[in-house]
Amino acid sequence: MPAKYELISGDLRRQIESGELRPGDQLPGEAALINRYRVSVPTIRQALAVLRTEGLIEARHGIGTFVRAPRLKVIRRNERHQTEKALVHAADEERRRNGSAETDTGHLTEEFSFSAEYRTGTASEAVAEIFGVSPDTEFLQRSYRSRFVDEDVPISIVTSYIKLDAVESNPALLDSSNEPWPGGTMHQLSTVGIEVDRVVEDITTRLPSPSETEALGLLPGTAVFIIRKTLIDINGRVVELSDVVLPGDRHRLIYTTQLERWT
Q: Which of 33, 89, 143, 222 has the most crowded Cβ, counting Cβ within 10 A?
């Protein structure tokens, strides 16, 4: 037999899912809910807590409780890397319309807000080891965040590392104001003569740090995908390393592997 708070949360969930209560609608106050369901204050609060945890409602301090608009979903496919490489030789206008975010979401460039921060300096010993260089090697470290313009939190947090001496021959690559760069990282690298041969993505999950929870607007208990992406050039050298944090409630990862036919 379900508990009373479960019956109440179930009824309100049904109203939200059916559209009786729409995103932005305000739920009745505690007193009205208590009168409607004939239960105590703790029972109503427990029912609402369930819906908040599920991300269906949100409390606005001093105003009330509202149906939460669902976050837009992102599907990340491994074909995105071949699409990015093919864009290297495309016209500038085509590259501007077809970045990774556009590929993953199906949304237009103007529907995104993008920010980038650049700095130079040494990286951690672990990063230097991946590149096969000494710990005192200078890197260009780039931090990226992109979000839908209608939402207040980013869809990802990305930290990228590239050896400084590999890209400093093109000053445009050291200027964050040139972001978002049409065609993405593979086109950036192509301007200094680097062709990417393969992409390795090591994917794990974990609970977010407090700063990630705040930055991504995560609900309690929501996990994040952690992708360590390594770009390797045609000479077998690591040319870029990036750590990507994706909110688990807004991302699906779909990887398709084309198999060779038997002969």
A: 33
